[in-house]
Amino acid sequence: YAPGMTTTTSSRPAPESRPPFGSQLRDFRQRRGMSQLDLAHAAGVSPRHVSFVESGRSRPSSEMVLRLAETLDVPLRSRNDLLHLAGYAPAYPERRLEEPELSAISSIVDQMLRQHEPFPAFVLDRHWNVVRTNETAERLFSAVLPERPFNAVALFFHPGPCRELVENWEDVAWVTLARLRREVATAGDDERLRRLLTEAEEAMADREKPSEVDPRAPTVTTRLRLGGETVETISTIVSFNAARDVTLDELRVELVYPADERAEAEFRRLAG
């Protein structure tokens, strides 16, 4: 017996009758490349307990569900899903960024966008929907950006003006595809994210990975055609890692920086 474990006298079900919670927990564990023993040691419980929970022989407490989810670094939305499958209420609220409870965070996000001028910045949700941009992004990319919200994966991978904007489109596309694959591998049961990955993979199906990309380079720069010039940029992503709200946990602010002095001068010139 382990803390947070409720034992039952039912016999062990066959693999195909594994309960939904046990299946989801096992799925997250395997996605993280952990054995039952690994998870047990990391969570501070017995391997037998993890085995019983996955097989359905034991029903975990809500505290145990959250402990295992925290150990597996499960996203907050999926932690709520695990709680639901185990028969408990969600632990994390999900509020829109415009709601009063998130007004302080919303103001911080807007401040980040303003302070990043004269360089582009975007706010994305977990499905790569762009929900906010700063004025530079609106001005420089107005010819290729549809009205918000729009999906960055669909815009980038589908044929259209975005491919003309990015000079080294294929290099960036392969990097973005790899990032999508990592997100799908860690997100759990997210059908929308999987569909986005499928769209991206289909777009790259007939393209060979460029051999000229230097594997020793610390990052792949994005070369943008702006104002008749080509500028090299590097992007960084800001997230709220200590978030206790589903919306904030999934929010990302992508900041585009000039990769060299010439690119910085060109951005400032275009900003007037």
Summarize the structure.
By secondary structure, the protein is of the alpha+beta class. The chain is 47% helix and 15% strand. The strands form 2 sheets. The chain has a 6-stranded antiparallel β-sheet. A two-stranded antiparallel ribbon has the order 1-2.
Walkthrough of the structure:
The radius of gyration is 22 Å and the shape is elongated. The chain contains 13 helices and eight strands. It starts with a strand and ends with a helix. Strands 5-4-3-8-7-6 form a six-stranded antiparallel β-sheet. With 272 residues, the chain is of the alpha+beta class. Helices cover 47% and strands 15% of the residues.
How large is the share of residues in beta strands? 5-15%
Radius of gyration: 22 Å
SS-based class: alpha+beta
Strand order of the largest sheet: 5-4-3-8-7-6
Global geometry: elongated
The poorly predicted ranges are 1-16
Task: Kindly state the number of beta strands.
Answer: 8
Largest sheet data: 6 strands, antiparallel
Number of helices: 13
Helical proportion, percent range: 40-55%
SSE ordering: EHHHEHHHEEHEHHHHEEHEH
The overall average pLDDT, rounded, is: 88
What is the terminal separation in angstroms?
69 Å
